[in-house]
């Protein structure tokens, strides 16, 4: 089930301070010095996926000691403020979002046939089939992300805020107010994604409030992905399916250690949630790289669509993927690469059922597919090395790539 987040989860950026990148030496022996521009961000007006953020701490100059290599010591060349944000992201990367879904509250609504990963890494979904209750609730999704704290209508006497649309109702609660991070709980009913004329679904808000109230008891905890058995099929609840995976604890911004070394400039947008990274390595601020993690249908990384001339199957650092170039009527410099973390992944099982898996998405704005491939190579290489390091912790997992 797909939920339209474009309206609910907006993201904006504003320019920040410039910091000199440590001098590097190019393969030709010529010393390069670039500028590291940190873009702070106007926080998203609601709780969202990985976005842009900036602490109130002033940007501090990085070490300008020359390096004789074409890689930088990540994250040492960043400011203290940015390193602090990355440390917080690392702390959150081990957190299991499903731990903020109270099983008793879910049970009061209905019997879930699945609780676990679903889509973006900062989310967890409880799915009901058949739909639950008189409202025919099909899904409850919890998301951890940036929050301004003032979106939606406040519920008197509580920190909860509610917002209903023709599709769903979402409740919002604080998680870490100092970092402006919150939790959102979205309740969706069967068939409502196409019923835009029905008006706001206020009738779903009591369920959204119920799961948020239960979530408030859990917001101070740090439920760990490592405590959830990995690769569990048909879980016996409250087991959380597919939340524990090596990709969850890999910092996607670590690619900057390689990509920023020869960059004329670096525009860095680290949000407080660490399962994605947005950055630019060009003097043109509109040319941006994006890295995202997801648990989704494997065919996105394994199969091209029929008659889709703009899609090509590729292999990057031993990982299978699909490269999608800009369409005929779109910017020819947009590119999206989707990689499966399992080098032996299959799109379907023996019965023809579609399979899901852990995916890495790399996209570029204004740069084309050559740049996207370089970024994909960097993150895939990092993943393979990380996978081999933590492989003993995942006995049921297949082999690593590379």
Kindly summarize this structure in a few lines.
The chain is an alpha+beta fold and 402 residues long. The chain has helices at residues 80-93, 103-109, 205-216, 256-259, 299-302, 369-390; strands at residues 18-20, 24-25, 31-32, 35-38, 114-116, 119-120, 123-132, 137-146, 153-154, 161-164, 168-176, 181-189, 265-269, 276-280, 288-297, 311-316, 319-325, 335-340, 356-365.
Task: Characterise this structure.
This protein is 16% helix and 27% strand. By secondary structure, it is α+β, with helices and mostly antiparallel strands. The chain folds into two domains: 18-93 and 246-393, no CATH class; 97-227. Strands 1, 4, 6, 13, 14, 15, 16, 17, 18 and 19 form a ten-stranded mixed sheet that branches. A seven-stranded antiparallel sheet has the order 5-7-8-12-11-10-9, with helices on one face. Strands 2-3 form a two-stranded antiparallel sheet. It is globular, with a radius of gyration of 21 Å.
Lay out the secondary structure.
Layout: E1 18-20, E2 24-25, E3 31-32, E4 35-38, H1 80-93, H2 103-109, E5 114-116, E6 119-120, E7 123-132, E8 137-146, E9 153-154, E10 161-164, E11 168-176, E12 181-189, H3 205-216, H4 256-259, E13 265-269, E14 276-280, E15 288-297, H5 299-302, E16 311-316, E17 319-325, E18 335-340, E19 356-365, H6 369-390
Parallel strand pairs: 4-13
Antiparallel strand pairs: 1-4, 2-3, 5-7, 6-15, 7-8, 8-12, 9-10, 10-11, 11-12, 13-14, 14-15, 15-19, 16-17, 17-18, 18-19
């Amino acid at each position: 089930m797909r939920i339209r987040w474009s309206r609910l989860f907006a993201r904006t950026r504003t320019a920040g301070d410039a910091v000199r990148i440590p001098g590097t030496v190019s393969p030709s022996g010529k010393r390069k010095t670039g500028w590291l521009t940190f873009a702070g961000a106007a926080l998203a007006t609601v709780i969202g996926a990985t976005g842009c953020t900036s602490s109130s701490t002033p940007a501090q100059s990085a070490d300008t000691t020359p390096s004789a290599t074409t890689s930088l010591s990540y994250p040492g060349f960043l400011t203290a403020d940015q390193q602090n944000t990355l440390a917080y992201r690392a702390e959150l990367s081990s957190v299991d979002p499903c731990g903020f879904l109270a099983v008793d509250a879910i049970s009061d609504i209905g019997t879930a046939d699945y609780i676990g990963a679903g889509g973006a890494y900062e989310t967890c979904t409880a799915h009901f089939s058949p739909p639950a209750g008189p409202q025919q609730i099909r899904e409850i999704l919890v998301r951890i992300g940036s929050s301004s704290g003032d979106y939606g209508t406040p519920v008197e006497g509580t920190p909860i805020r509610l917002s209903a649309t023709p599709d769903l109702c979402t409740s919002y609660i604080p998680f870490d107010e100092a970092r402006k991070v919150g939790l959102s709980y979205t309740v969706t009913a069967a068939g409502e994604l196409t019923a835009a004329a029905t008006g706001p679904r206020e009738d779903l808000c009591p369920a959204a409030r119920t799961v948020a109230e239960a979530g408030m008891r859990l917001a101070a905890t740090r439920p760990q992905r490592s405590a959830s058995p990995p690769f569990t099929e048909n879980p016996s609840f409250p087991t959380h399916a597919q939340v524990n995976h090596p990709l969850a604890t890999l910092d996607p911004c670590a690619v900057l250690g390689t990509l920023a070394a020869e960059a004329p400039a670096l525009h860095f947008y680290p949000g407080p949630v660490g399962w994605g990274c947005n950055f630019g390595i060009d003097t043109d601020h509109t040319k941006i790289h994006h890295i995202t993690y997801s648990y989704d249908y494997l065919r996105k990384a394994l199969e091209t669509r029929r008659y889709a001339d703009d899609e090509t199957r590729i292999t990057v650092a031993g990982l299978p993927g699909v490269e999608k170039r800009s369409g005929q009527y779109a910017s020819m410099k947009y590119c999206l690469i989707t990689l499966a973390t399992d080098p032996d992944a299959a799109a379907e099982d023996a019965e023809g059922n579609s399979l899901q898996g852990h995916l890495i998405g790399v996209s570029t704005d204004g740069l084309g597919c050559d740049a996207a491939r370089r970024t994909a190579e960097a993150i895939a290489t990092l993943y393979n090395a990380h996978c081999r390091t933590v492989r003993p912790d995942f006995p049921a997992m297949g082999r690593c790539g590379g």
